[in-house]
Amino acid sequence: NADFLLGIKYMSGKRHHFVPRFLQAGFASHTNGSETFTWVYRKDLKIFNTNTINIGIEGQFYSLNGDTQVDDNITVAEVRHSALVEELRNARDDSVLNNKAIAELLAHFEVRTRYLRQSFCCSVNVLIEESLRFVEDKHAFERYVQNRIFNDPNTLQNAITNELKLRYLSDSVPEEFINIIQSLIEQSLPNIFDYLPVIVEQFRIAVPEIIKSSAKSGHLKGLQQTIAPPLKTDIYERLVYRIIHTQDMVVPLGDSMLVFQVEGDRTFKPFTEKDDHVQAVYLPLSSSCILVGSANDTFSDISFLPTVIAQCSLEYFISATNSAENSILQSRIGEFAYILSQDQIKALVDGVTSEAIKLSNGL
Fold it and tell me: Are 241 and 291 a contacting pair, CB within 8 Å?
């Protein structure tokens, strides 16, 4: 169709859709010729209506330093994925579905999104920020370093020895040399502590861009190997799939596209991890059509789904309607979206810093 051909055009250029336009087309508020429009809900921002050409897009998202391999591979795959989505939209409720093709589609949608990069960056940034706050506490950090290094001379000595061996490419480092360097470090540390606030601030400014760059290169490296990981497709192929057409419920589409239901405390999430036991997966295909995969071939009431879609969206969701119900959901965006929640990160850092404080106090 025309919308899909436009999607291919922009996919293969500089503007890359991490949420494909052929999927967004199912959530149209209206069309104008070949153009498709929808409502965009971002947390704490004004709701607006726009062309899907402007949604779920980032310049050179799948390219790095002129390498377009990932972009090219996804462009080719979108031909069969678009056809499959259209076929599923037209399927009857309880139709027998092609598990293998669906499993590949889901695995691809799961790993292609901006959600992965952004949630990784957000989690790491919060983790580093919490850690820097401990380092900024000059007295607590100084006591920690003194206890770790100088109360156990072997710690510093072993570190110096290992570094020198790497640089000298020799297993034999004169003990006198090690003692001199250790003495210099001990003398200079108090001055280093005085400069900690400046060092921390420079680090704080530089880190976000470093993390963003690392997240992109890591994501693309994975996608170069496969745009539909076999480990995921094997799991999803075991599920039983059904199409559910809703009557009175308007379904939105989140920027993570998928919602997974798994065993454990975190029931719903937009991405599965190695030890997750997937109970169900949900892919909105249109405002009134949902693909549901179930591990036990049971399909219960899905009235909870719009709320969960919003919670598993990282930055926004789209909808065919501008409604009071969607405005309520807007405040729920991001609640289940992060790889690690801010509470989990804070608990992790608090545990580490608590142990560090105990060490600094000699406990």
Answer: yes
Task: Compute the distance between CA of residue 33 and CA of residue 3 in angstroms, rounded to an integer.
Answer: 10
Beta bridge mates, 50:
38
| Residues whose CB falls within 8 Å of the CB of residue 24, separated by 6 or more in sequence, listed in order | 36, 38, 52, 55, 56, 253, 318
- Per the DSSP assignment, residues forming a β-bridge with 16 are 58
Q: What's the CA gap between 78 and 59, in Å, rounded?
A: 18
pTM comes to 0.77
- What's the angle, vertex CA 245, arms to CA 243 and CA 247, rounded to 5? 165
Position 233, amino acid: T
C-alpha 205/C-alpha 211 separation (Å) is 11
Backbone torsions φ then ψ of 152, nearest 5 degrees: -135, 85
Q: Give start and end residues of each alpha helix (H) in the chain.
A: 2-11, 21-24, 69-89, 99-112, 114-136, 138-145, 153-168, 175-194, 196-225, 230-237, 305-312, 324-330, 342-360
Q: What are the tens digits of pLDDT across the range 68-125?
A: 999 999 999 999 999 999 999 999 887 667 789 999 999 999 999 998 888 888 878 8
Question: Within 13 Å of residue 93, how many CA atoms lie on the same side as its CB?
Answer: 7
Order of strands across the sheet that contains 278-286: 240-245, 289-294, 278-286, 259-262, 268-269
Cβ count within 10 A of residue 254: 28
Q: Specify whether the CB–CB gap between 28 and 36 falls below 8 A.
A: yes
First vs last Cα of the chain: how many Å apart?
A: 69
Residue 30 burial class via C-beta count within 10 angstroms: exposed 0-12, middle 13-18, buried 19 and up: exposed
Name, in order, each residue with C-beta under 8 angstroms of 319's C-beta and a sequence gap of 6 or more: 27, 29, 38, 39, 41, 250, 252, 253, 287, 326
Query: Distance between CA atoms of 131 and 150, rounded to whole angstroms?
Result: 22
CA pair distance 121, 118, nearest whole angstrom: 5
Residue 295 has pLDDT above 70, yes or no: yes
